Amino acid sequence: MAIAEMKKVMIASHRSEAEDLLDALQQAGIVQILDAERAMVSKEWPELCVESKRPRDLSEMVSRLDKAVTFLKEYATDKDDTSVFRPLVEVDSKKYKEVVSGDSAEKLLVETESVSTAIEQFGTSKENVLGVLAGLEPWKDMTDAVEYLVDFGSTSCITGLLPEQNYEEIVEKLVELCGAIEVVGTRGNMQACIVVCMKEDKGDVQKLLRGGDFEVVSFERMKGTVAELLESRRDELSDIESKLAAANEKSVELARERLSLQIYFDHCQNLLTREDTRTSVPATENTVLLEGWVKKKDYSKLEKLIGKFSASSVSEMEIAEGEEVPVEIDNPSAVRPFEAITRLYGMPSAKDVDPTVFLAPFFALFFGLCLTDAAYGLIMLGLLWWMFKKMQGDKGFLWLFITCAAVTVVAGALTGSWFGNAVVELVGEGSGLDELRKSIMLFDPMEDPMTFFMLSLGLGYFQILCGLVIAFCNNLKNKDYATAIFGQLTWLIFLNSLLIFGLSKGGLIPAVFGKPCAILAIIQAVLIFLFTERKSGMAGRIGGGVFALFGAVFYFGDILSYVRLMALGMVTAGLGMAVNILVKLVMEVPYVGFILGALLFVVGHLFNLAMSTLSSFVHSLRLQFVEFFPKFLEGGGKDFVPLKKNYKHVLVNTKKDN
Questions:
Q1: Distance of alpha carbon 104 from its chain centroid, rounded?
Q2: At 371, is the pLDDT very low, low, confident or very high (cuts 50, 70, 90)?
Q3: pTM given for the model
């Protein structure tokens, strides 16, 4: 339940076995390897060489495979053994090795690319022919061969489409230019026209036609009548469609074998990652130097792994001054699901404390108080358990919500909320179920909101104190005693002294405690004023002290933020009550009232559950990130990213080998 301690290591390997060593390291997934730019050895020995040349062939292969897999998925008629919860296809290691060691995947890739190219070409040809057919259709009634629609001796011939609304105007003006026009067909509101004029007037005629939105149609390189051309193009289209259909059928056939391409893609992608690593690290003519990080607990495993290679060795390195150590957090299994919350915020720095173990109980409790409905919690548990059985891979996030749902059941039972007030409203007050509900309930927030209010403030105050205590202990651990005393201890005493003083004045505790706590609070205020800012001059210290004392207002504001626990819990209950009242009213409708009421009950409470769950998660998250973490967490740590194998399409399942 802390930040994992890291070791800096240097792995030296002869080039002859560097590739196999990297494969073993990638399979183990325990070492983060630094490239030459970040490796300290490169700064100490700048004469070391770096290949810095990405394996082009392998990179191109990955790109080709990705396109081929995407292409075949569009033609797949059979379904992958995948779902939203199981996005990877499970394969046994025997099948995986068979694909990556053979040449069947590459042959399938070539065949897929060939079919893909053919389909693309046929598609383009089809579009072109359809365009030609559409262009010829308005001229189908013309009996003359199109090659005669050209300029002759002293006359010129212009063919094209003219908007119907401009036809009369163009005819009149053409007469003035001694030209003639004939309509041979139509396409919508466009008329297919042949315009004839004297050669010397062609320029003026063209200008006139452009003004009338005339679209020139060219029959260049065409011979025969339009009817013959249409028949020829239709035959060509039929041939293209036949070939396109055959190519599509072939694609469907190839799609049944796409698993091989998916396996080969994942293999090549991992191989590319490994090769990128190998070509980016410092090296000599015969030796590859792998500088990196490993968790202290995994160092013995690394030594054992390196020991299997006769021309490789591993040794510890001193961490250079100012060098950034990557951060990884390790927690027991019960807390590990809540690491997702920490990672959403960002990794703690190497000098920080891992907040996961501290936030876990608070987050689950706050979520439960925001939702505060036992029936909703039970529904969540059932749904989450079903998802847990279906889901593939890391299930940590599901465990997080399962924990929160379990707390919701308890919180709802203790506040008497089961689908809001459904027991009272729909079953009846004083019924057996109502008596059972009351026997478990501690208080009803709708009748006693101040209890919920004080509970929310109390939890907020306690969490903020926990944050200060964590910061105090962590500063002591880092030997920053001044910050521990004047940054946390004084505030702990100050805030608790003020609390006890206030409680004594309110008569909640004996008044004898009031005066000593008031004096103690004043002493802490003086210490905060004088020693919060310790590195500036007098003016800076005074300004820093005043601002620090004003920070007491921020603490009170943070505590008040926790009232959202009560607000959201009561909103959930209130909306549930509204649904129940509507259900009761609808059930009074003759004949269909029960059916409509049941439908409204299900839809209304599912809506309330969805909205309240979202609000509970977001606001519980906010309380951690805004009110709790800033009290002790600096953040900004850099993730520990070991070299490991990642899969996009398949999951190698060794259990299937048995």
A1: 34
A2: very high
A3: 0.82
- Alpha-carbon gap, residue 331 to 76, rounded angstroms: 43
DSSP string, 23-92: HHHHHHT-EEEPPTTT-HHHHH-TT-B------HHHHHHHHHHHHHHHHHHTT--SPPS--SS--SEEE-
Residues 127 and 129: their CA atoms lie apart, in Å, by 6
Q: Other CB atoms closer than 10 Å to residue 429's CB: what's the count?
A: 11
Strands 155-163 and 89-91: unpaired
Angle between helices 226-255 and 56-73 (to 10 degrees): 110
CATH number listed for the domain at residues 135-234: 3.30.70.2750
Alpha helices in 506-652 (DSSP H): 514-531, 538-561, 563-586, 593-622
**Under a CB-based contact definition with an 8 Å cutoff, are residues 59 and 623 in contact?**
no
**In the predicted model, is pLDDT for residue 424 greater than 90?**
no
Dihedral in degrees, nearest 10, Cα atoms 515, 519, 521, 522: 140
Which tokens is 567 given?
A: 């607000």
Cα separation, 41 vs 50, whole angstroms = 12
Give CA–CA dist 410/373, Å, rounded.
8
Alpha helix ranges (H) inside 148-285: 167-176, 202-211, 226-255, 258-280
| Burial class of residue 198, CB neighbours in 10 A (0-12, 13-18, 19+) | middle
**Cα 371 to Cα 405: distance, rounded to the nearest angstrom:** 9
DSSP 8-state assignment for residue 630? G
Single-letter residue type at 434:
D
Kindly report, residue by residue over 60-107, the tens digit of the pLDDT: 999 999 999 999 999 988 877 777 777 888 888 889 999 999 899 999
Please enumerate in sequence order all residues whose Cβ is within 8 A of that of 654, keeping only pairs 6 or more positions apart, or say none.
Answer: 92, 93
The H or E element containing residue 432 is helix 432-440
Phi, psi values for residue 504, rounded to 5°: -70, -40
Q: Which has the closest alpha carbon to 159: 188, 199, 136, 193?
A: 193
- What does the alpha-carbon distance between residue 416 and residue 570 come to, in Å, rounded to a whole number? 12
Which residues are within 8 A (CB) of 537 and not within 5 positions of it... i.e. 6 or more apart?
none
Nearest Cα residue to 632 out of 330, 254, 356: 356
Longest dimension (CA), the chain: 124
Q: How far is CA 360 from CA 185, 354, 400, in A?
A: 79, 11, 9
Residues ≥6 apart with Cβ < 8 Å to 277? 22, 33, 35, 643
User: Would you list the domain boundaries of the chain?
Assistant: 135-234, 336-631
- Looking at residue 347, the DSSP 8-state letter turns out to be P
Residue bearing tokens 């009634």: 141
Placement of tokens 């056939």 in the chain: 253
Q: Strand, coil or helix: what is 368?
A: helix
Chain segment 198-218, per-residue pLDDT in tens: 998 899 999 999 999 999 998
Place of tokens 């809001």: 420
* Distance between CA atoms of residues 572 and 416, nearest Å: 13
Q: What does DSSP assign to residue 327?
A: B
